[in-house]
Amino acid sequence: MRYVGAALLLSVSLPAHVQAQAQAQAQAQAQVPELYLDELNEVTVELRDAIALVAPMSSDERRSAVDIQMSLYRSSESLRRVERYARSQNNDLVRLGNAPNRALLRSAAIAVQLDAAQQMLALYLELGDRIFLDNARASLKMAMDLKALR
User: Fold this and answer.
1) Contacts of residue 112, Cβ cutoff 8 Å, sequence gap at least 6
2) pTM
3) How far apart are CA 31 and CA 112, in angstroms?
4) Which carries the bigger pLDDT value, residue 150 or residue 99?
5) Smallest Cα–Cα separation from 134: which of 147, 148, 116, 149?
6) Three-class secondary structure of residue 5 per DSSP
7) d(C-alpha 94, C-alpha 113), whole Å
8) Angle at 88 (CA atoms; ends 44, 98), nearest 5 degrees
């Protein structure tokens, strides 16, 4: 035990079996981001295709594109689940004494950008303001840039 300023710090070493369990858990969780990336890749392709489909539509066509809006809504729920789960897993790893998991945090950041792109595209469908389409494209590009990081 030692005092640092007003804080009391306790030095506690974990038993070997707890450390081994934490390492096994960390290794198992390190494989999960690949599953996220597969799901994120699918959403990226769907979103890219939706932007290409929606961009040349007339205002009447955009307003009647209910199937696209429903697809965006379902994907948005999925992306938010991926973000929450990736952040939760990273927090669990950090609580066990591991360093932050870059792949998990990157997956969460990609999910946020893809969700932003979908929200912008949904607003473009509803309102027709070109700024929303431009922002959807920009958010999609940011997500793709994050996926390219190693």
Assistant:
1) 79, 83
2) 0.77
3) 21
4) 99
5) 116
6) coil
7) 24
8) 110
